[in-house]
Give the backbone structure.
Amino acid sequence: MNVNLLSALVGFSIVTLFTPGPNNLMLMASGINFGYRRTLPHLLGVAFGFAVMLTAVGLGLAQVFTVVPALRLVLKAVSVVFMLWLAWKIATEHAPGVEGKTVGRPLRFGQAAAFQWVNPKAWAIAITATSAYAPVAGSLGVAIVAVVFCLTGLASSNTWVLAGRAVARFLRDPRHLRRFNIVMALLLVLTLVPLLQH
């Protein structure tokens, strides 16, 4: 992979991973409700889980949808149900609790990694990135794409969690926090619109 292609790949990863989407909205909400340290497993699960998914897609997994088109519909249904459940979880989060302790918990590493497989934005990015940047160098190209996205993903995830921590200062009143969580949940549901239009 030459320098120009690598630069284009890095630019593509920055634009796609730093913009709002299901992962970033959930990370920000988690940063607000649980803080940086408790959100760390969620953050790492997003970055490494997506890199694993991207590698699998780059090595041929995406072709399964061509062979068995019904799987696309199954994935869409699972994505909608899971994201609605996550939106409900965010909207009904009650933090802090009666005694000042946070009620509930953020996503764990495995849950965040597994979420990548039902995240429509993750699929769109993985298919575009591997088809645009990996074919030139084969499996080495797939590895390079995965590493670039993992590093960019770590930077992006950290940014969104820290942004959540910064916003948390203005949401000390439980009523404001509750309203914010509902808004974040609605935004998460809105990310389903492009999925439902196709």
The two ends are 33 Å apart (CA to CA). Residues 64 and 105 are 35 Å apart (CA to CA).
